[in-house]
TrEMBL record:
<keyword id="KW-0472">Membrane</keyword>
<feature type="domain" description="NADH dehydrogenase subunit 2 C-terminal">
    <location>
        <begin position="290"/>
        <end position="315"/>
    </location>
</feature>
<comment type="similarity">
    <text>Belongs to the complex I subunit 2 family.</text>
</comment>
<dbReference type="InterPro" id="IPR010933">
    <property type="entry name" value="NADH_DH_su2_C"/>
</dbReference>
<keyword id="KW-0249">Electron transport</keyword>
<feature type="transmembrane region" description="Helical">
    <location>
        <begin position="96"/>
        <end position="115"/>
    </location>
</feature>
<dbReference type="Pfam" id="PF00361">
    <property type="entry name" value="Proton_antipo_M"/>
</dbReference>
<feature type="transmembrane region" description="Helical">
    <location>
        <begin position="275"/>
        <end position="294"/>
    </location>
</feature>
<keyword id="KW-0999">Mitochondrion inner membrane</keyword>
<protein>
    <recommendedName>
        <fullName>NADH-ubiquinone oxidoreductase chain 2</fullName>
        <ecNumber>7.1.1.2</ecNumber>
    </recommendedName>
</protein>
<keyword id="KW-0496">Mitochondrion</keyword>
<dbReference type="GO" id="GO:0006120">
    <property type="term" value="P:mitochondrial electron transport, NADH to ubiquinone"/>
</dbReference>
<dbReference type="GO" id="GO:0008137">
    <property type="term" value="F:NADH dehydrogenase (ubiquinone) activity"/>
</dbReference>
<feature type="transmembrane region" description="Helical">
    <location>
        <begin position="202"/>
        <end position="221"/>
    </location>
</feature>
<feature type="transmembrane region" description="Helical">
    <location>
        <begin position="152"/>
        <end position="171"/>
    </location>
</feature>
<keyword id="KW-0812">Transmembrane</keyword>
<keyword id="KW-0679">Respiratory chain</keyword>
C-alpha cells in the first residue's frame, strides 16, 4: 500500500478511537466506532488474497451489526429517558442490548466466532492492531456505562470468554489464532471485573495491551506464523527467544511475572464480593490458556530445531 494512504488510514483509525473515548453523546460515540471500522477494512484487505477479503467482509459485517445495536439501544434509552448522555443509561432493556452489542464488538464469547477467522486472514501487523488498538473504543464505552450495565450478564460473558478462549486455543497450530483466543480469554477477565472494580479493569487492559504488543512484535520479528516456525527463533536471535518465553509465561499469568498481577487482583476482588464459585471457575479457566502458552514456550526455547552443525545461527 502507498505510504501516504497508509498514514491517512492509520490516522483515521486513531481519530475514530479518540472520538469514541472523548464523546458524551451516543451519536458521536457511534460515529467514532464507524470511523474505526471503515479505517481498518482496507488495512485487512491489503493482501488482495481471497482469505484477507473474506476476513475484511466478516469484520465489517460483525462490527456494523454491533454498531447498529449500540445505536439502537441508545435510541431506546433516549426515547424513554429523554437524554443522549452516555453516562445516563438508566433504561434496563437498552442496557442489556448495549452489553450484548459491546460483547459482539469486542469478541467476547459466545459472540467471538468472527475474531479468530479475521485475525487468521490478516497479516501479523494487522492482527496486532485488531487485538490491541481495536479493543480501546468498546472498552472505553464499557468504562463509561459501567454503573448501569447488568453485572450478571457481564459476569457470565466473562466466564464463557475465559473458558471458551482457553478451550478453543488448545488445538491450534497457527500463532495468530492462538493470539486471538488468548485475546478472548483476557477480555473475559476484564468483563468479569468491570462491574465490580473499574480500576482493576483498566490495569488489566493496560497489562494485556503491553504483553500482546510485545509478543506480536516478537512474532513479526521472527516471522513465526505457526508453532513450528517458533522453533527456529533462537537461530535468529537467542535474546528474542528468551523475551518471547518471558512474555508468553507472563500472558499465562505465572508469578512473579507482570501478567500474574491483574489475575491475582481480579480473583481477590471476586472473593471479597463473595463470588467464590466464580473465582474458582476463572482460576480453572486460566489453566487452559496456560497450557497453550506453555506449549508455545516449549517449542520456542526448549527444543532444538533440526539443523546442520555448519549452520548454527542465521547471522
Amino acid at each position: 500500500m502507498n505510504p501516504t494512504i497508509y498514514t491517512i488510514i492509520l490516522l483515521s483509525l486513531a481519530t475514530g478511537t479518540i472520538v469514541t473515548m472523548t464523546s458524551f453523546h451516543w451519536l458521536m460515540a457511534w460515529v467514532g466506532l464507524e470511523l474505526n471500522t471503515l479505517a481498518i477494512i482496507p488495512i485487512i484487505s491489503t493482501l488482495h488474497h481471497p482469505r484477507s477479503t473474506e476476513a475484511a467482509t466478516k469484520y465489517f459485517l460483525t462490527q456494523a451489526a454491533a454498531s447498529a445495536m449500540i445505536l439502537f439501544s441508545s435510541m431506546i434509552n433516549a426515547g424513554n429517558t429523554g437524554t443522549w448522555d452516555i453516562t445516563q443509561m438508566s433504561y434496563a432493556p437498552s442496557n442489556i442490548l448495549l452489553s450484548l452489542a459491546l460483547a459482539l464488538k469486542l469478541g467476547l464469547a459466545p459472540a467471538h466466532f468472527w475474531l479468530p477467522e479475521v485475525v487468521q486472514g490478516s497479516t501479523l501487523p494487522t492482527a496486532l492492531i485488531i487485538a490491541t488498538w481495536q479493543k480501546l473504543a468498546p472498552m472505553s464505552l464499557i468504562y463509561m456505562t459501567m454503573n448501569n450495565l447488568p453485572s450478571t450478564i457481564l459476569l457470565m460473558l466473562g466466564l464463557t470468554s475465559s473458558t471458551g478462549g482457553g478451550w478453543s486455543g488448545l488445538n491450534q497450530t497457527q500463532t495468530r489464532k492462538i493470539m486471538a483466543y488468548s485475546s478472548i480469554a483476557h477480555l473475559g477477565w476484564m468483563a468479569v471485573i468491570a462491574s465490580i472494580m473499574s480500576n482493576i479493569m483498566i490495569m488489566n487492559l493496560l497489562v494485556y495491551l503491553m504483553m500482546t504488543t510485545a509478543l506480536f512484535l516478537s512474532l513479526i520479528c521472527s516471522k513465526s506464523k505457526t508453532i513450528q516456525d517458533t522453533a527456529t527463533t533462537w537461530t535468529t536471535s537467542p535474546t528474542l527467544a528468551i523475551i518471547m518465553m518471558l512474555t508468553l509465561l507472563s500472558l499465562g499469568g505465572l508469578p512473579p511475572l507482570t501478567g500474574f498481577l491483574p489475575k491475582w487482583l481480579v480473583l481477590e476482588e471476586l472473593i471479597m464480593q463473595n463470588l467464590i464459585p466464580m473465582a474458582t471457575a476463572m482460576a480453572m479457566s486460566a489453566l487452559l490458556s496456560l497450557f497453550f502458552y506453555l506449549r508455545l514456550t516449549y517449542s520456542t526455547t526448549l527444543t532444538l530445531s533440526p539443523n546442520t552443525l555448519q549452520m548454527k545461527f542465521k547471522w
